[in-house]
């Protein structure tokens, strides 16, 4: 499948009792087209833009994108991959969600 767009929509919940942030989300490839496909990121620890890094790792692991691994074992950021491959990247995160919404 030729990827034209990557959309990442996440929801974040802050566990006040333990002081930790968690998120879950949906990765949509080719949003709004006949070939659109959704992938789910389950509830996991993370805050800020960590959800984008996890989405990048997921797409590479599932062999949906080809990330070139650096010598230290890391991968280039998703925005760089999208820029290099002329893919539209859109990200969105809803903060202050309730745990049941994730």
Write structural notes for this entry.
The protein is of the alpha+beta class. Helices cover 19% and strands 36% of the residues. The protein is built from 2 helices and 4 strands; from the N terminus they run βββααβ. The protein has helices spanning 50-61, 78-84, and strands at residues 5-15, 20-29, 37-45, 88-94. The chain has a 4-stranded mixed β-sheet with strand order 3-2-1-4, with helices on one face. It is globular.
What is the H/E string? EEEHHE
* Low-confidence sequence ranges: none
Total strands: the figure is: 4
Percent helix, as a range, is: 10-25%
Brief summary:
This protein is of the alpha+beta class and 102 residues long.
What attributes characterize this protein structure?
alpha+beta, 36% strand, four-stranded mixed β-sheet, 102 residues
Strand-helix topology:
Elements: E1 5-15, E2 20-29, E3 37-45, H1 50-61, H2 78-84, E4 88-94
Parallel strand pairs: 1-4
Antiparallel strand pairs: 1-2, 2-3
